[in-house]
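Task 17 of the worksheet. Students: predict the tertiary structure of the chain below and write it out as C-alpha cells. Keep your answer in the requested format; marks are given for formatting as well as content.
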Amino acid sequence: MFTPLLIAAAIGYLLGSLPFGYLVARAKGVNIFEVGSKSSGATNVRRVLGNGPGYLVFFLDAVKGALAAGWPLAVARGWSSDMGVGPSITTMAIGNLTVFDYQSVAAMAVAGLFGALVGHSFSCFTKFRGGKGVATGVGGFAVLFPWGALIAVSAFALVLALTRYVSLGSMVGAVTLPVSAWLLHQPKLIIGVSAAVAVFVVVRHRANISRLLAGTENKIGRAAQP
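Model answer:
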C-alpha cells in the first residue's frame, strides 16, 4: 500500500504546486511575493489586484485540491465498472461515488489532498513559497466530505461578515471540519484528515494570529499592511 500512497501524494504535490496565484498576478505585471502579505493565495491576489483575479485564483486553487483528492476515486470507479463489480462485492461510498476497496482508495485520496496542500504552500515552482492552503482544502473536501466543505464555507462566510477578517474566517472554517465530521458520524479516516487539515491551516496562519491579537490584522476592504 505504501507505493500507491506515495504516487498519490506525489501527484497531489505536483498539482498543488501549480502557482496559479503567482501566474495570474504575473500576467498583470505584479510579483505577488513582493506585495501585500507576500502570499500567492487568493486573498492576497484579490486584495492587490481586485475581485476578478482573486476569485479566479480561488477557483483554480480549489480545482487543484479537487483533482488531487478526486482522481483515485474516479479511477477506482472506472476500474470497478470495467471489472463488472456487482452487489456480491463489498463496496462503500464517498460522497456520491461508489468505489471498490474503500480503505485503500480513500487513503490514496487523502494522501493526494495532503500532497496538494503541501505543494500549494511550498511550491517547487516558486522556490517553495505559496499560499495557506484554504482554497485547495475546500476543493479537496468538496470531493471527500461535501457536507463538511459546505459547513466550513458557511462558517467562513459568517465570520467574515461579522468581523471582516478573512484569516479568522479561514481558521474557523477549518476548525469546523473535524467537528462536523464527528457530529455527522463520518469514517475515522475523514475525521482524522479533517483534524489534520484544520491544524495545518491554523499553523499556516500563525502570523495572522499574532496580528489578530495585536489588533493589526488586515480587514477585507482595507489595503494590506506589509
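Marker's comment: Residues 2-214 form one domain. The two ends are 45 Å apart (CA to CA).
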